[in-house]
Amino acid sequence: MKNLIKFSATFLIFFVLLTSCKQEPQVKTKSAVETKTVITDPLPSWNDVNSKKAIISYVDAVTDKNGANFIPIADRISVFDNDGTLWSEKPIYFFILYAMDRVKSMAKDHPEWKNKQPFKAVLENDMEALEKSGEKGLIQIIMATHSGISVKSFKESVLEWSKTAKHPKMNKLYSEMVYQPMLELLNYLRDHDFKTYIVSGGEVEFMRVFLTEIYGIPEEQIIGTRLKTEYVYNNGNPHIKRLAGLDFNDDKEGKAVNIQAIIGKKPVFAGGNSDGDLQMLQWTASSSHKSFMLYLHHTDAEREWAYDRKSHVGKLDKGLDQAIKDGWTVIDMKNDWKLIYPFELN
Asked: Residues 248-280: pLDDT tens digits?
């Protein structure tokens, strides 16, 4: 009997100890917060149309390392016209509007301009007479207002003008007249390791004042029409002086020539809006890599302008024919873009 009691007591102590040592069941917890992969729209100001789909499809194809159309980063060169492609160009190119304002501010020192075309047309705001003066008249205005000073002084003048001068129709600063969908495209390409260049008929030093800040494109990647210049030592204070002569016209075939001379390789992506960009797009189309040619067709008379084959500014005729024939991407501004300018976001 004593042995039975002793055994029972021992068992009881063992049971208590076993129970006290038993761990409580653990509640399974997540070691990290679960996250969802959110797919963002890289071109939010574009409608879901063919032009947008074609751009995204192209970028996907040429950045896929395992794909047949993969393009090495070093060869991902993209070139864009500026006037009419990245910002507006009506009623006339912005660098000419700057020149017209300069004519008015300089007129007090040139009384002969009151009776001399094309300056008379500018002073009287006679756009019809100015248009009749043609390319020759515009060159006269450019040379009178863009030359005879250092590059530094010219850029300071443009910068001061840009702070207050406003577009005659939109009443917005010229820096606000850029296309929001194209800003998104530039960023989208850079996000995929494309190098972006401006290749425009606009005067290069004028553009460099504006475009680096607006587009995020460094000055050395802005290519344009050049005036002749000379080096002046100036008693130990050297500068580059702008002369009254055309050094290079960065338009039409000049764009392809300048691309080769300055960039040194063919682009694989090109964007333009006029026949003046046609040779640049043709040059891009001849790349050994898969290439993308884009034309912006101005079709929105209500929000911007509608023009193409018969326009004096930004004429798109032969280029449109080749784009249709060769299957290049044509942006229909009215139908493809939800909005046009960044200020519409406000």
From this structure: 999 999 999 999 999 999 999 999 999 999 999
Instruction: Find the domain containing 324 and state its range.
Output: 50-90+171-345
Q: Residue 222: which H helix or E strand, with range?
A: strand 222-232
Question: Could you give the number of structural domains in the chain?
Answer: 1
C-alpha to C-alpha distance for 47 and 146, rounded to whole angstroms:
41
- Residue 10 CB contacts under 8 Å (≥ 6 apart), including other chains: none
Residue-wise pLDDT for 119-141, tens only, equals: 999 999 998 898 889 889 999 99
Structure tokens belonging to residue 257: 């020539």
72 CB burial (10 A radius; 0-12, 13-18, 19+): exposed
Per the listing, tokens 């003008």 go with 161
Query: Please, how many CA atoms are within 13 Å of residue 84, restricted to the half-sphere of its CB?
Result: 30
b/e code 301-320 from CB counts within 10 Å (16+ = b): eeebbebbeebebbbbeebb
